[in-house]
Design a protein that fits this description.
Chain B: Belongs to the YciI family. The complex is a heterodimer of chains A (about 400) and B (about 110). Chain A has about 400 residues and is mainly α. Chain A has 20 helices and no strands. Chain A folds into three domains: about 100 residues, no CATH class; about 120 residues, no CATH class; about 80 residues, Alpha Horseshoe (Serine Threonine Protein Phosphatase 5, Tetratricopeptide repeat). Helices cover about 25% and strands about 35% of the residues of chain B. Classes of the chains: A mainly alpha (about 400), B alpha+beta (about 110).
Chain lengths: ~400, ~110
């Protein structure tokens, strides 16, 4: 990594470590103090490194400076010091020297607990994702804004509201009790999956940041697997699902930045290592009795790692979609299920089923019907593709549909 | 939308004791059918199958096996769906695999207490 990339990367990884530890030490109500100390540290780093060059161990340099700033802050803020001292008085000899514990172990522990605090059910999902990117991933406000295709003011507002909520609800940084873990984990996993999808499904002309959202979601999910208490089947299933999808990163986009549909992808570009990783964690997820939607979606993604169309592949995919719909309805799952039906059973059956869905305002619905009719009734196919073209919103979608019309 | 209970009835003696492959095809038919209802966002609860044996409690001291000693068809399972009218619910029931073994679907509107 050259310096241009190293510094932002370092800022991101060190920022989130410092924030997590300081929040755990000070309490979440003082998250702004933690943020100030972290920002100050990086400001000092930019200034000093700009003049003197990079230190031998930049990460250690940042940790030391952050620690000193925190100690200084405590020295001048007796109220906060008095508040946090009693809480730690049994753990170690208490001086401000020892209370800022930036050991690897404490960082990991703090980050895990922070994840549950950020993904608290009382915070709106949108704000959870922004907050996760800021404090769990260490993204800058401008990075978050550009990842969401919005401006800094919007993101700032979202973050302020989320932090207010954390304070008002007096959310503490701790792991939920064992009998609450499953429920709380639902929200954490949902947020991580949304974060992943945010990066995966908006193919904004190969925006590098978007792929990083996926990697961050994977990193956070993996940190749940690393902890004994949160290493549960549904977490492994989600990680498997993310791995399978990530294996197609390089194949999903051509050199011009256009989306390449699954059928047209060059499977030699699929990342075999990530596929194997997915298989391993899918296997790990089959412990226990719980069948989450992540298990089913990971199963579907697993079968998609076989490019060749076989009866077995599509029959399995169809049954997984059937089960997924029984757990939770969504128009996209219903449409995908109908496509699988056309492959596993017959196109005629799929057409009859598709027409029952009545999702007439959805461009994907018309794209699917156009696709199903294309070798049966060209007129009907043309009608549905043109409906789809009218309903599609993004230039990418319009382009894909136009290609289908031209190919009729 | 209203909710409707589908009660699947069939003659226990008519249930084919097929090979594992045939059983698998039978399961697939049911899953595809329920999946189709779910795809229309009209499934409330996929329900369950019921074991063949059962008892009927008719009072403090009267418990009998049954009720199928006298009746040809007994309940094999149930699901809950949603629809605007009972006619629409019946239309959905028409694809049910239970007909292939001569069974029936009773469609009853659920009156919420």
């Amino acid at each position: 990594m050259n310096d241009d990339k190293l510094i932002p990367h370092l800022f991101r990884t060190e920022y989130r470590k410092i924030i997590a530890v300081l929040c755990k030490t000070f309490g979440l109500e003082h998250i702004e103090i933690a943020e100030d100390i972290a920002s100050d540290t990086f400001l000092q780093a930019s200034e000093t490194w700009g003049i003197k060059g990079l230190p031998d161990n930049p990460a250690a340099w940042l940790t030391t400076v952050a620690k000193n700033k925190a100690k200084n802050y405590l020295k001048h803020n007796k109220i906060l010091l008095d508040k946090i001292m009693p809480g730690i008085k049994y753990s170690a000899p208490q001086t401000e020297e020892t209370i800022i514990d930036l050991s690897t172990e404490n960082i990991r522990d703090s980050q895990l607990k922070m994840m549950f605090a950020v993904c608290h059910p009382c915070i709106a999902t949108e704000a959870q994702i922004a907050l996760a990117l800021r404090v769990l991933c260490g993204f800058g406000i401008d990075e978050i804004a550009s990842a969401f295709l919005t401006n800094k003011a919007t993101i700032n507002k979202r973050l302020v509201r989320a932090k207010d909520k954390l304070r008002r609800e007096k959310i503490s940084i701790e792991l939920p009790l064992p009998d609450e873990i499953n429920n709380r984990l639902d929200v954490v996993l949902r947020t991580l999956y949304l974060l992943y999808n945010e990066g995966y499904y908006t193919s904004q002309n190969e925006n590098i940041l978007r792929r990083e959202l996926c990697y961050e979601a994977m990193r956070l999910t993996f940190s749940l697997i690393e902890n004994e208490q949160t290493n549960l089947p549904q977490v492994n299933a989600l990680f498997a699902l993310m791995s399978f999808h990530a294996s197609r990163f390089d194949a999903r986009m051509n050199e011009k930045g256009e989306a390449v549909l699954y059928d047209e992808q060059d499977e030699t570009l699929w990342d075999k290592k990530l596929i194997q990783q997915g298989e391993y964690f899918l296997q790990q997820s089959s412990r226990g009795k719980q069948l989450s939607k992540y298990h089913l979606e990971a199963g579907i993604a697993y079968w998609h790692t076989y490019k060749e169309d076989t009866k077995e592949k599509w029959e399995n995919i169809l049954q997984l979609y059937n089960q997924l719909l029984m757990l939770e309805y969504s128009p996209v799952i219903a449409l995908n299920r109908t496509y699988a039906l056309s492959k596993a059973n017959s196109i005629d059956e799929a057409i009859a089923e598709a027409e029952k869905l009545q999702l007439t305002h959805n461009h994907l619905y018309h794209t699917l019907l156009g696709e199903l009719y294309k070798n049966k009734n060209v007129q009907k196919a043309a009608f549905h593709f043109s409906e789809a073209l009218q309903l599609a919103k993004t230039p990418e979608d319009k382009q894909l549909i136009q290609r289908k019309i031209d190919a009729l | 939308m209203k909710e409707f209970l589908f009660i699947y009835r069939r003659d226990v003696n008519n249930i084919p004791k097929g090979s594992p492959e045939e059983m698998q095809i039978e399961t697939k038919r049911w899953m595809d059918w329920i999946g189709s209802i779910a795809a229309q966002n009209k499934l409330v609860n996929r329900g369950n199958r019921l074991e063949v044996g059962g008892k009927v409690v008719k009072g403090l001291s009267l418990v009998t096996d049954g009720p199928y000693a006298e009746i040809k068809e007994s309940i094999g399972g149930y699901s809950i769906v949603k629809a605007n009218t009972i006619e629409e619910a019946c239309e959905m029931a028409k694809g049910c695999p239970v007909f292939s073994i001569g069974g029936t679907v009773e469609v009853r509107e659920i009156s919420v207490m």
